[in-house]
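Inputs:
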Amino acid sequence: MRVTTRPIDGQKPGTSGLRKKTKVFMSEGYLENFVQAIFDATGGAEGKTYVLGGDGRFFSADAAQVIIKMAAANGARRVIVGRNALLSTPAASHLIRLNRTDGGIIMSASHNPGGLDEDFGVKFNAANGGPAPEAMTEAIFARTKELSRYFLADEPDIDLGRIGAQQIGSMEVSVVDPVADYAALMETLFDFAKIRAMFAGGFRMRFDAMCAVTGPYATEILEGRLGAALGTVVHGTPLPDFGGMHPDPNPTWAHELMDEMFGAGAPDFGAASDGDGDRNMVVGKGIYVSPSDSLAVLAANAHLAPGYRAGLKGVARSMPTSAAADRVAEALGIEAFETPTGWKFFGNLLDAGRATLCGEESFGTGSDHVREKDGLWAVLLWLNILAERKESVEEILNAHWERFGRNYYSRHDYEAVPIEAADGVMAGLRGQLSSLPGQVVEGMTVAAADDFAYSDPVDGSVSKGQGLRVSFTDGSRLVLRLSGTGTEGATIRLYLERYVAGPEGLTEEVQSALAPVIRAAEALAGLRARTGRAGPDVVT
Ligand code: VG1
Ligand code: CO
């Protein structure tokens, strides 16, 4: 059935897909237009195969039916969909690669809250399993601006609860277990026997799935296959509104886990994941692991896991992520890459075999096993390392800092700031960039200041305006950028870093260690002054 439509404003994908208020996505033609634009901008769906799934948030089940009927009406050959429309983002990436499909559609707004009054989102992943690269998202956006029709099969709903093949017109819909193939992949990468023995020996863990998609994955893998005590996974049932939780695994939103890990009788290891399962927070008994440090520790120890025994080809991190991983790459004698924020920028490096591990300061780590960041994968790599080294998280971190020095790191988020005020902050700092080198701010001399532009070393594409950065001669750095995943006003992210070589001063409190950089940021960008805020809303 051909349905007449008109272009809808603002369907521009951000850092990771198109995210809007759920009610916006539910409005007439909104989802349909965007999905049709995806098909049209990628050469049509005729004869193609797609993976479909999502984090189970409110509206996913209905949206899945629409997307399936649109794929059918656009001539697709087959859609592989997770049971009840569930698939974590890394599991979807794996299924795309495993089945060599032409791509996949993931229904998720990731770490944003879910529900009728919260957020919904749609991401398109390409045939390599990774997020659509910039040129593709731009083509999709361009298509949304000229759309006059979409196609929708006039057929009954598919039974998404029933595993197996069903037909819709001439298209096959395969409903699959969302966990099985992913869990099998994890078994090829990690020493499950060794981790199982560690749990059998009394090792205790807490995994907070935050009522989002990783619940079934973590329950099957940690409790089922690795023998962690029943109840290790909490908030393990995916709920349409995430049980009211904000499924963003950071110390602010995963405070229940933090309280437990810093309380009496804390387990040995704690972890949390986000809405769609691609992020992870890792916590030791009484010690928090910053995502930038986590990437560095994983890079330094990955060879302890069977899947990485041959060593790493290279390590890539997003620009705002601390340079801790670079120091490891240098010691290992491998390449280090610095990309813009968002996983889509790692795809080429992974495909070209130039990077094996990638990471972002926003609780994202992953490897070349898929083309997305992967929360549970990171947790399993940590477990594998813990099982091999037989040391606590604290001991491993301290040893890491003693060897490489410590990149103190923090991100300060100012959320839902009026757009003009946020633009003012950015413009204010941007205007000073060229005159900053050589200036002394809060006792530190500016070494360089610029608006980060990235030249992809594989395909030569250039991405400009990726964040304002100011680095100081003592190795300290501050970065300012606007979020591309929010749905309300603007979110300003301020990233702060200071390097201490050691051996003294490696275990200071993070915010006090960063105090001079925080003051320098305020002096240069006037965040508090311009937004009228007393301080950041979230500190990670
Ligand atoms: C944020 C993070 C970024 C991450 C992106 C998608 O983007 O900073 O590192 O790749 O979310 O993650 P932004 O533009 O808001 O800073 V996910 O797990 O929310 O898909
Ligand atoms: Co996510």
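The mean pLDDT is 96. Flag for discussion at group meeting.
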